[in-house]
Amino acid sequence: MTTTSYIIARMDCSSEEQMVRMKLSLIQGIHFLEFDIPNRKLTVYHDTAPETILQKLEELDLGASLLETEETVKEVSAVGTDRKLLVQVLVINFVFFVLELVLGVFSGSMGLIADSLDMLADSLVYGMALLVAGSSVVMQKRTARVAGVVQLVLAVAGIAEVFRRFFGTASGPDFQTMIIVSFSALIANAVTLLLLQKSNNKEVHMQASMIFTSNDVIANLGVVVAGVLVYLTGSGYPDLIVGILVFLLVGRGAFRIYRLST
């Protein structure tokens, strides 16, 4: 059996770990995947060619590169993703997707609406991860294709609405709602990451490293900052700027999900 290590430069959070798992689940001859997300490293125990694995990783556009490969005699057994934890983080992300979407609409905040789609993106990834073990390759690809298209359409619609408001006369958002809801989502993302890392027995400093490198947390903080700037300036532009940045982030994630169908 061969052990090959890969650096995945843009693997910042556990949802991207699930995307890697789904992509590599389509390859025969892989026995075990060992993730070190804080160091953006993946170790694969396999019998197939390392280049085949690298090719699949490159399709995710996460900056994958081969680090080293060697023969090993280490005994490993396939360990599936903890379905209970996946269900927990799926519920957390979906609840906050609905919460941020509804309150974003009522408060007039594009930042909150964009952040809700970021939560939806994670929900889609965790949901697809739950389907991997028990579904056919065709069903996995079909699900990824539909999820990617839906997410991309929503992101494009959000960007269009930001531009409409930018050139229109819409009033500024409710900054208090922005700050409270986005800070709550920040806590939810932190809990999600801690739950997922608990299953991998990571040390505390590793968990903290993941939280601070997560794109989700950065997006949450961006909405909080935008809410503060709306309060200080009396302008809705900070909300629109953060909104379009997060929508672009969601659009990039949609392309990654869609590539799981190729």
Shape: elongated
Indicate the low-confidence ranges by residue numbers: 201-213
User: How large, in whole angstroms, is the Cα Rg?
Assistant: 19 Å
Binned strand content: 5-15%
Please indicate the count of domains.
Answer: 2
Number of strands: 4
Helix/strand/pairing class, anyone? alpha+beta
Characterise this structure.
This protein is of the alpha+beta class and 262 residues long. It folds into two domains: 2-71, Alpha-Beta Plaits, CATH 3.30.70; 83-259, no CATH class. The protein has helices spanning 14-24, 50-58, 83-107, 110-132, 137-166, 175-198, 204-213, 215-233, 237-259, and strands at residues 2-8, 30-36, 41-46, 64-71. A four-stranded antiparallel beta sheet has the order 2-3-1-4, covered by helices on one side. Helix 1 runs parallel beside helix 4 (110-132).
